[in-house]
Amino acid sequence: MNFEILEGITQADAAFRIYGRDLKELFRSGAGALFSVMISNADCVKRAIEKKVELENESIDLLLHDFLQEIIFFKDSESLILFPEAIDIAESGNTYKLKCSFQGEGIDVKKHQLKIDVKAVTFHNLKVEKIRNEWTGTFVLDV
Amino acid sequence: MKITNFDKIDNCVFEIPNTYKQGMLVPARIYSTEELLSTMDDAAIDQITNVAMLPGIQKYAILLPDGHSGYGFPIGGVAAIDPEHGVISPGGIGFDINCGIRLIATSLTLDDIKHDIKRLVNDIYKNVPCGVGAKGGLSLTDSKFDDAMIKGAVWAVENGYGAKEDLEYIEENGCMEKANPASVSAKARDRGRNQLGTLGSGNHFLEIQVARKENIFDAKIALQFGITKDNQILIMIHCGSRGFGHQVASDYLKRFITIMPKYNISLPDRELAAAPFYSKDGQEYFEAMNCAINIAFLNRQLIMHRVFEVFSDVFKKSPHDLGLRIIYDVCHNTAKLEKHGDYKSGKLLLVHRKGATHAFPGKMQGLPSKYRDTGQPVIIGGSMESGAYLLAGSEKAVDTFYSTVHGSGRVLSRTQARKIFCGNLLQKQLEEKGIFIRTASFPGLAEEAGDAYKDIDDVVLATKESGLSKPVVKLIPVGNVKG
Question: I need a labelling partner for B118 at 20 to 30 A (CA). Which of A8, B79, B102, B273 fits?
Fold first, then answer.
């Protein structure tokens, strides 16, 4: 996972730049950035529950948005902290298709050092691009 | 930021002309002192000048004294749009739809509670779920959830959470019309269902405060608002529509981004995505947003009910005997159709307020009869160490479509604050100053340190000087629950 916090974009929220050698690694970095806002001891989360998700979008940056939103959705709807384990992203015609197996466990305040609730992945400064041989992206989380 | 490109219109009003940036339909106006303006970040100015490009915007894109950068719209941003020819923009409301603040009076004084502050804060922390992943005690069936979306705080009262009298003192009487659950996605329902009655995290808080005699600036209005004695205790609740509202905003922003070309709308930031208000897309968002506004009213009503239970348990008296009564409940993040009498003979405008408070002067329709002579109570949340303010709506706010500040406004980013402050140490330091805090997250507490925000006294001074609202009383925290 490879990400950095960006200053000067938003004072109220959290902005990130993420990196990856390929799209799978980029998306995994995005999830890492998201979890860095929500939990201090992500290593303590057991892989006890699995959820499979399939997403598609014509735009790769909107696909990143939807992928990160799934993590927020599971957190709120089922109180689960789920990490992407196996990610597959394929380009088919004009559409990017993503399959992901998320694994994790229910939120336990005694075990997990929780930080700040993330409300949403915003569309502000949302960008994914390939520069030479590396993928990079930026996004802002509403916290 | 450095003050350039501004025309000084008045002592506390600065204007950026619509020639500043291509696409601006109206000028941007910033309400601030020169000193506060110098602390505003450049991104906030960039964002408010983008807001000036929204189709149908009237008069000015407005940035209030607590303004700072967010995403799309700045926080503290106001845009009044002609609904007949203009748009609705979910980014102008924000993800936390009807994040708002409620102030509650008690008949207790600091002397009455000084030995019980820790117990009150600890019991509130136990009874009001907060922090990441917290679940509320109420899980509704689909039909009851639909009913709650339509009725808001009214649903709460009908189901035993609070009294009928509460409703008069909530903006819109706690229930927005034109809320249609059919426009709400299954995902929004799933995100919101288990979170009713939860505080959240970030800048959301629940605070016990004291109104000291020396901090009362207008005794007559304070009395009318229900502040009747020295060192009177008040309770402040700041939270919103939780995951329900966040998902409603996400759903429609995504939809609006894809449909904007159909309406020939082009804006510089996707977070400003918009649709014509009277289009099918615009109306469905409006209906779903009104559901989220109602869920936030319901949320604050449920939380207040739990707080009342704690006070009743600690003091062995009923809420009525403890003088527990809502002073007012205001929304921060909404778009509402309002009749603005001064503007082209009472035309309906769709006023977007993001991190801004509706602030009506006296004698306006919709205000409780008790406040007809004083103006609407305006509640300004501060940081947990700086205190908060109660102000009154003013006629001079006509230029901002009767909008005013909602809080202090950040000067440090969350990352900068975490580098400077330590949550555990801050908790100890504040306890030594007489402010007892419980938090679900120490890193989160560090991000909310007083010095991460503008000086609230400066923000209120700018608000007073620009005539947006009249200061009534400053409230000092003695206990705080942070999510």
Answer: B102
Q: Six-digit token pair at B100? A: 């708002």
List of residues 6+ apart from B312 with CB closer than 8 A = B318, B319, B322
Q: In B169-192, which positions are buried (b, 16+ CB within 10 angstroms) versus exposed (e)?
A: bbbbbbbbeebbbebbeebbbbbb
Across the interface, of B132, B187, B269, the residue whose CB is closest to A107 is B132
Q: How far apart are CA B56 and CA A133, in angstroms?
A: 44
Cα-atom radius of gyration of chain B, to the nearest Å?
21
Q: With an 8 Å Cβ cutoff, is A83 touching chain B? A: no
Q: Does residue B393 contact residue B468 with C-beta atoms inside 8 Å?
A: no
| Residue contact B43–A13, C-beta within 8 A | no
Residue A103 pLDDT grade (very low, low, confident, very high; cuts 50, 70, 90): very high
State whether A142 and B75 contact (CB < 8 Å).
no
Report the alpha-carbon distance of residue B381 to residue B371 in Å, rounded.
20
pLDDT per position as a tens digit, B99-158: 999 999 999 999 999 999 999 999 999 999 998 888 888 889 999 999 999 999 999 999
Give residue A107's pLDDT band: very low, low, confident or very high (50, 70, 90).
Answer: very high
CATH superfamily of B7-482: tRNA-splicing ligase RtcB (3.90.1860.10)
Whether the pLDDT of residue A111 is over 90: the answer is yes
Helix B117-127 to helix B280-315 angle (10° resolution) is 140
Count of all residues that appear for chain A in the document: 143
Residues of chain A found within 8 Å of residue B253, distances taken between Cβ atoms? 123
Q: What are the residue numbers of the active site of B?
A: 406
Domain A3-142, CATH class in plain words? alpha beta
Alpha helix (H) residue ranges in B213-349: 219-225, 242-259, 280-315
CA–CA distance, B179 with B241 (Å, rounded to integer): 14
Sequence-ordered list of residues with C-beta below 8 angstroms from that of B435, at least 6 positions apart, any chain: B384, B385, B477, B478, B479, B480
- Mean pLDDT in consecutive groups of 10 residues from the start of chain B, 483 residues: 77 94 97 90 93 98 92 94 97 96 98 97 96 87 96 98 97 97 97 94 94 97 96 98 96 96 95 97 98 98 98 98 98 94 74 96 88 96 90 95 90 86 92 93 88 90 95 97 90
Contacts of B135 in chain A (CB under 8 A): 79
Which residue carries 């109570």 as its tokens? B377
